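Re-run with default settings, no changes from the original entry. Doing this only to confirm the output is reproducible before filing.
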Amino acid sequence: MTDVADIPSSRLPKVRKLDVERPWAWLRAGWHDFLAAPGPCLAYGFILALAGMILTAAIWFLEVFYLVLPLAAGFMLLGPILAGGLYEIARCLEKGEAVEFSNVLSAWRRNPAQIGLMGLALMLFLLAWIRIATLIFAIFFSDNPPRPEREFIIDVFLSVESLPFLVTGTIVGGILAILVFALSAISIPMLLDKPVNVFAAIATSMNAVRENFWPMALWAWLIVFFTAGGIVIGYVGLIVTLPLIGLATWHAYRDLVDWDSGS
C-alpha cells in the first residue's frame, strides 16, 4: 500500500461546485448500488440496526432514559465511521469488483492508521456530547427530577416545563453536529479511496462543505431524515436507510472531489 505521505495535506484535491439539487442524484446512485448488492447491504444494515436495538434495551434496563436522545444523536455522529463497509461496497461496484462481505467488514485495512485516527476523533466528539447532554439535563432537572419509565417521556419531552431544556439541548447538539458533519462529510470515503492522511481528508471535507453550502445543507438534512426515520420505527428501518445513506455518501465524495487537479 502506498504510504500516506505520498499525498500530503499540502496537496489537497480540487473540490467541485455543484448544484443545490445534486444530493438527490447521490441518493439515486446509492439506491442503484443497493439493488446491485442487496445481500451485503442488508446484512450490514442489520448489524447496525441490531446494535442500536441492544443499546436502547440497555438504556431501558439501566433506567438511564436521559441518554436516549444523546445516544440517538451520537449514532449519527459515529455514522460516518460505522458506514465504512458501505463505502467499500460502493467502491467495489464502481470498479466492477466482486462484493465480498468479508472484504466489506475489513475495509478499514485499506488505510488503517488514518481511519483509526478519524474514528478516535469521532468517538471523542461522541463522549463530549454525552457529557454535555448529561450536564444540561442536570442543570434543568436537578431540583425536580422526572418520573421513571413512561412518565419520563411525558415529563422530559411532552411538557411545557421541559421546553427550555429541549431548546438548549437542540441548539448545543446542533452546533456540535454541524461541526462533525463538516469534518466527516466525505473524509472517510476519501481515506478509503486514497492513501491520504487524516488532516488532508478533514481539510478537503471542510472545503467541500464550505464551497457547496446549500447542497451539503440539503444532504445533511436528508441524512438526519433517513436516520431518524429508521430509528423511529424501532430501528428496523435502519436496515435499509443506513445502507442507502452510506452508499450515497460514496457518490457524494466522488462527485465533490476532483483528483485530476490539485489545489
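The CA atoms of residues 59 and 67 lie 7 Å apart. The chain has one domain: 17-262.
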